[in-house]
């Protein structure tokens, strides 16, 4: 262990290995620092002294001799760690899920009935954005609307989020959506009584 205040050792030669001379022509210094020989042989090294490794690093250009298209392809490959990639969701889209993949040999889901999915697609056009803000589907009843509003109001209230401005803005959107849907439900409730 080095003493406190002592200069750190510059040697990068692993202990137990024999020291090498610098690979630069005419240099007799120790080759303590490794540098790759070529971009196609990154694990094959030259051994240089500090002066020559600095000169080598300054002149090194990984992309020398490559066309712009090859450079672009190399950069794209590096963004995925040289592994093949594909757009999200495309791989499984072509696979057909057969009945064998959906079978339930233990009968775990035998008593479970699929829940009908509520969608905002059948909702009146002026309510679709409001339903999305509240995360509700159409049709919606007054009690479900009130319960969802209370849940979201508690979650996004500024007092519960340390005065966060984004939570305050989200709560304003929730309030607007709630009042819009509530007014529409009130008008829908009055329409049958007027027709009778």
TrEMBL record:
Coiled coil: none annotated. SMART domains: DnaJ (SM00271). Residues 129-186 form the J domain. SUPFAM superfamilies: Chaperone J-domain. Residues 1-24 are annotated as: Disordered. This is J domain-containing protein. It comes from Muricoccus vinaceus.
């Amino acid at each position: 262990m080095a003493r406190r205040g002592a200069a750190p050792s510059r040697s990068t030669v692993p202990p137990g290995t024999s020291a090498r001379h610098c690979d630069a022509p005419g240099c007799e210094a120790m080759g303590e620092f490794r540098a790759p020989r070529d971009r196609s042989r990154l694990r094959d090294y030259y051994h240089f002294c500090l002066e020559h490794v600095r000169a080598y690093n300054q002149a090194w250009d990984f992309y020398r001799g490559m066309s712009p298209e090859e450079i672009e392809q190399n950069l794209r490959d590096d963004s995925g760690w040289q592994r093949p990639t594909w757009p999200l969701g495309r791989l499984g889209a072509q696979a057909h899920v057969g009945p064998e993949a959906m079978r339930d040999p233990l009968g775990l889901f035998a008593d479970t009935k699929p829940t009908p999915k509520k969608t905002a697609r059948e909702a009146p056009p002026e309510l679709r954005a409001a339903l999305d803000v509240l995360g509700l589907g159409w049709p919606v009843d007054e009690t479900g609307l009130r319960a969802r509003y209370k849940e979201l109001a508690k979650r996004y209230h500024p007092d519960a989020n340390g005065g966060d401005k984004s939570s305050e803005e989200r709560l304003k959107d929730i309030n607007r959506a709630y009042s819009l849907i509530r007014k529409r439900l009130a008008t829908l409730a009055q329409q049958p009584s007027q027709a009778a």
